[in-house]
Amino acid sequence: MNCEKFNKLHCSILPVSRLYPLSPFAGGIVSFMHRLIVPGKLDSLSQIAEYVLVAAAEAALDQKASYGLYLAVDEIAINIIIHGYEESGREGDLELRAEISDRNLTIMIEDTAVTYDPFERSLTDDSDKHPHEKKIRGFGVYLAMQNVDEFAYEWLENRNRNIFTVHRTSHS
Question: Whole-model pTM?
Fold first, then answer.
């Protein structure tokens, strides 16, 4: 794995048993990119995008899978920033971690914003309203979940944790 070409991001290869697990791995070696911590502000979205796309490239994801992962992470990050921090009057960070195994790329976002379980939100049904009056809420989260192979949410130690997993089709 060659991470030297990325100035801001560094990575290392460690045995699974020495990693903070994002998802359960049976064993072997995984690549773990150092975490990215950014302020919970919309200005941070470009750094988040770069981190996700670098991880996708390191995992040798194809263009479609890379873009889908980027869209999913971007949607959830925007929701955390707007609804979890800005609308609630809170300030905080988003912490991203990436883990690459021989089977998957897993991206995790943790934050201290208002508790928000995306699975508890459903699409609003405004089908009886005029298109200009509709408030489509929850559609972005739905689309985010459709763009990855697995999506999980946890509330752990007073932190939201969103976990995105994409299966690798080519092993490098």
Answer: 0.76
